[in-house]
Amino acid sequence: MTEAILLVGGKGTRLRPLTVHTPKPMVPAAGVPFLAHQLARARAAGVEHVVLATSYLAEVFEPYFGDGSQLGLHLEYVTEREPLGTGGAIRNVAARLRSGPDEPVLIFNGDILTGLDINSLVETHQRTGADVSLHLTRVSDPRAYGLVPTDATGRVTAFLEKPQTPQEIVTDQINAGAYVFNRSVIDSIPTGRPVSVERETFPGLLAAGAHLQGLVDSTYWLDLGTPQAFVRGSADLVLGRAPSPALPGRRGDRLVLDGAQVAEDAKLTGGTVIGADARIGAGARVEGSTVLAGAVVGEGARVRDSLIGAGARIGARTILDGAVIGDGASVGADNELRDGMRVWCDVAIPTGAVRFSSDQ
Question: Of 15, 217, 309, 335, which has the most beta carbons under 10 Å away?
Fold first, then answer.
């Protein structure tokens, strides 16, 4: 198995303001762009050639990763000019693939953090003679996902999109966003128009009698589509709950990157990441959070389960709990932002402008 496609073209709308200036796969998680973790795990599984299917802010990928040689990979970049959907994006990069018609191609979604055993998925695909194999995981509440029931041999029997009633929930298995396609299947996807692999390609293959195999792997899995999930994923990487060869430091309670300044009595816990050249003031407490490069957290501030964008400034004694602060924003002293509140890039909030009373 030497070849993979990474789907990294999404706009990351749910992650804004993190994705205003940065495409979702390039937002730092545990000190490096999230995409670096995916590429490192692919390389560790024996992948040598990766085609990145880009779209939104496509120009930022190649300057960072180059030809991939420093990662032990050969990277190529293909940009879709109009949105093509997941299936269309896969088909759009087919000309860059080297695999023969019956050879497997690994495909990853660019916003899934997982401990999937990649080699096991490929082995399952080859052993069963499948046309397409899917990584499946189990979730307690599958209503927000597409259900993928399988028979006793693991063969996929249906694709059920986002069930809402108890009668529709026939399994807790969902599409986890990693696949192995035979190259010939990729070449069969229509060109020149949007195609959803979930809603068109997979159901169409099933209806035509193709062999779609599911591998249920219930190791770590997290969709990083929301700011809260992204912060959690970054912390889990630092804590060692999610595996990655790309972590730029030792696993533990905190990760402090080069050039960052942390006051001696500041406390960093819960997988917190402090980016390069960031500053954490005296008496500050930062738990399970990400502070990006050049940001400043003032004296006595309390930051929990939050993300502070590059170059942002958090004033003294301010409380952030489940908040997202955009790049370059400024939150003055003695503010309190909780429960998913977002501050857009470069916005300035004056001292004491946002507070929560004790009865709220």
Answer: 309
Tokens of 209: 């009698």
pLDDT of residue 357: 46
**pLDDT range class, residue 360, cuts 50, 70, 90:** very low
Phi/psi for 102 (5° steps) reads: -100, 10
Say if strands 319-321 and 3-7 run parallel, antiparallel, or are unpaired: unpaired
pLDDT of residue 286: 98
Q: Is 162 a catalytic residue?
A: yes
Q: What are the φ/ψ torsions at residue 271 (nearest 5 degrees)? A: 80, 25
Length of the chain: 360
Beta strand 28-29 pairing with 132-138: unpaired
**Pairing verdict, β 254-256 and 146-147:** unpaired
**Active-site option among 11, 24, 162, 267:** 162
Q: Which two tokens stand for residue 342?
A: 């977002």
Distances (CA, A) of 108 to 4, 24, 51, 180, 252: 8, 14, 11, 9, 27
- Distance between CA 274 and CA 271 in Å, rounded? 10
The whole-number average pLDDT for the span 117-139 is 94
Mean pLDDT of the residues in the chain? 92
Instruction: Choose among 341, 299, 350: nearest CA to 320.
Output: 341
DSSP assignment of 56-77 equals TTGGGHHHHHTTSGGGT-EEEE
Tally Cβ neighbours within 10 Å of residue 268: 22
pLDDT at residue 1, rounded to an integer? 58
8 Å CB contact between 148 and 177: no
| Token pair for 105 | 């191609």
**What was the pLDDT predicted at 247?**
92
- Secondary structure (3-state) at 243: coil
The per-residue pLDDT for range 197-222, each reduced to its tens digit, is: 989 999 999 999 999 999 998 889 99
Question: For 128-150, what is the mean pLDDT?
Answer: 89
Contacts of the segment 304-309: beta carbons below 8 A, 24+ positions apart: 305/228, 305/231, 305/232, 306/231, 307/18, 307/227, 307/230, 307/231, 309/17, 309/18, 309/345
